[in-house]
Design a protein that fits this description.
globular, binds zinc ion
Length: 271
């Protein structure tokens, strides 16, 4: 079986200074990707929102959209041998769907969207993912992930196991949460991302001992029991990390005999 063969050298999850918690611009990331021999590089900045002040410090403004598109286009011209894609990392909550559709998805030049849950709305309160600590929070997290999948707009779900950065116990609740996410990924045929950024953050303490907040090995061990595919990305927030920690993501694929998504066919119709 060669299902674990790396389809190509790629990273499909890259930020820029525009999200206010990253540094460097598209040219800096492309230079690092080219130096590492990448064939495919995708930019996935957090898109602007208009209605949630708590989220504003973590994303570009609407005024920066044109600059984002232009910067990627200019960088792509400089690296004709590397495929460079334009995307966004979305929290696609139903309440924002029409805003996204009217302001982002109708724009030309978007190659793909990735879906990630960073906040949940629990009984009217916004909770940062690291504040999640109950079975109810996990159920809402699953609902949000399932909503992203049901939209059919997402090329893959980023860091699906990031719930483990807040809910730190591995117990029946976190197992149920994991199984529900994995079953939904199988049902909707949406690839899941093993996210390398977790390896670059400090380990957290849990009742089971210190570990990375994510990726969560227990989640990926369960994933082996589902008919799903995975992608490996660096989730770079600094140019020097553009292609970082992908080997560790691939180690998870090999350890649990997961199926690598055929990334080369993912964007066959993208310009
Ligand atoms: Zn994210
Ligand atoms: Zn990201």
């Amino acid at each position: 079986m060669n299902s674990n063969k790396i389809p190509q050298k790629y990273n499909l999850h890259t930020h820029t200074y525009r999200c206010r918690h990253a540094s460097g611009d598209t040219a800096d990331y492309a230079a690092a990707a080219a130096a590492a021999g990448a064939e495919l590089l995708g930019f996935t900045e957090h898109p602007p929102l208009f209605s949630n002040a708590a989220w504003d410090p973590f994303r570009m403004t609407a005024e920066e959209l044109d600059g984002y598109f232009n910067s990627i286009a200019e960088t792509a011209e400089k690296y004709p041998s590397m495929r460079i894609l334009t995307g966004f990392e979305m929290d696609l909550l139903p309440r924002f769907k029409s805003y996204y559709e009217d302001n982002l998805l109708c724009r030309e030049g978007i190659d793909y969207l990735i879906g990630g849950v960073h906040w949940i709305n629990y009984h009217g309160d916004w909770l940062w993912i690291q504040e999640m600590n109950s079975a109810g929070h996990l159920r809402e997290y699953v609902n949000e992930i399932a909503g992203l999948m049901e939209s059919r707009l997402m090329s893959f779900i980023t860091h699906p196991d990031m719930f483990a950065s807040g809910y730190t116990r591995w117990d029946d609740n976190s197992r149920d949460c994991s199984r529900d996410i994995l079953a939904a990924a199988e049902e909707y045929s949406v690839p899941l991302e093993i996210n390398g950024n977790g390896f670059r953050k400090p380990e957290i303490s849990t009742p089971d001992g210190p570990r990375y907040a994510y990726p969560l090995p227990e989640f990926w061990e369960l994933a082996a029991g589902y008919d799903i595919t995975v992608v490996c990305n660096s989730d770079a927030h600094k140019p020097e990390n553009t292609m970082s920690d992908l080997d560790k993501c691939h180690d998870i694929i090999n350890r649990f005999n997961l199926k690598h998504h055929p990334v080369q066919s993912m964007f066959s119709d993208a310009s």
